[in-house]
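Researcher: Please translate sequence to structure tokens.
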Amino acid sequence: MTQARAVPYRYVLRQHRAALRTALVLAALGSVLPLAATVWSGAQEARQGWTFAVGDVVSLGLPLFGGVLVAGPMVAEELASGTYKLAWTQGVTPARWLAAKLLVPVGVLLALTLPMAGVMGALRDAALPIGPAPVAYTLFAVAFGALCGLLVRRTTAAMALAGLVLGVTLMAGGSQPYDTFDAQLTLTVPLLAGTAVAAAAAFLLLHRAARGDAS
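Model: Translation complete:
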């Protein structure tokens, strides 16, 4: 039994550990810099400085980074190179293969973005330090990234498409004030609906691709 067959989730973690470590470094910078600035110069002055801008950019950028990673190296690159066939012939079903590509980045990104959102919210004395919006952002970015990878099947093109659409979506949502639960809910509901559609379409495309390979 190969490692890919036994534990596809751990295999995905090891396969893309460099990119996931990059996400960890970005999240650390996005949290530590505003916190250090607040301790050093006081909350009021720090909120107007560049460190909080860095935190905001990282907060928006991590879901986008995850979506682009899934679209390109995780999905499109394997489809273009044909390496996915190795996993599929070693006991990993296509659905399980895609599930690992979705769940691993979702788990890692949520483990990074939620604490960072809590830190940023607390430093700003926000009424709602952590709400459902970061979760919805992350889920949508990863699901849409997988859909781009399955649709395009070319690494660079899939990454470009995912980055463009997710960038517009995340910046449009991030430009609005969402400091209450009701306000965040207005953003969360359409993002979750988009997540469901993108994930369903991705699994449908994968099912058709698997049938084509088997015939």
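Researcher: Any highlights?
Model: The longest helix spans residues 181-214.
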